[in-house]
Structures are given as C-alpha cells and as structure tokens.
Amino acid sequence: MIDEKAYREALDEMLRDPELQKMKQYYQHGGNTYAHSVQVAEAALKLARILPFHVKEKDLARGAMLHDFYLYGTNDMTYTAYQHGTRHPRISYENASRHFDLTDTEKDIILTHMWPLNFTRPPRCRESVVVTLADKYCATREYRRHFTRLIKNRFFRRQ
User: Which of 30, 64, 119, 138 is spaced 20 to 30 Å from 130 by Cα?
Assistant: First the structure.
C-alpha cells in the first residue's frame, strides 16, 4: 500500500535537486548513475504497490534516489568491483549526509542496499528491503542490456 501522490511529490523534488543532477556525469551499468537511480525509484514504486504493508513514501523515494550517490564513475575506479560493491554504500551515505537531512530510514536504505554482498549490514526496515530488491532487479536488467549490446557489436557487426 502506497500513497502514490506523496511518493511522486518526494521523487519530483529529488529529481530537480542540483546535487543529484551531478550523478548524470558518472558511468554505471552501461548508463549513468542518475538514470539508474531513477529506474530504481520507479521499480521501488511498482514493488511497493503490490506489497501488503505500508511504506514511508518520502523516505522510499529519497532513499532510492540517494542509494548510489557516490559521485564517481565505475569505469574510473582504482579498486576492484567487489571493493566498489562493499565500499560505495558508505561513500553514498557520507555524500548524502553532507547535502541532505536524512531520516533514519533513508540512512538505512543507503547503507544496506548492497545486502547480501555486505552481509554484515542487512536491511532493518521495509523501505530498505524494497530498494534493495528494486536495485538488484534494475542492475540485472541494465547489465543484460549492456552485455547484449557488447555481444552484438563484437560478434554480429557488419563488415
């Protein structure tokens, strides 16, 4: 159960934020971090519609948009993908804390969205579980598109 109007209002506010606009310049999953976060926010809304419990709409929308607020491109990393996976929630949290007043639920969403990779930090609230699931779904879909494109270009391009 979700109040979609409240969710959309919170999401629209985040989409207009100049700090979040910076995410458009950073590569992730074959696209950019901003587009990924918007897709996660949309998937979280769809998931929340079918769940039999209430979620905090504003926290869900804001947490979904801030979960990957780490502000660097994954193609520019100096460490491994595993290290990125385990470190970026803390970096995203620190960046978000500098620019936004975060609720406890939003903090939990950002810090736990990489569970079970970060197995010591499981989600502690419903909204965190929703964003974690939405993030896994979107990342899988984005990688599939990206790798399909790579395979087509590599093996099926016209000569």
Answer: 30
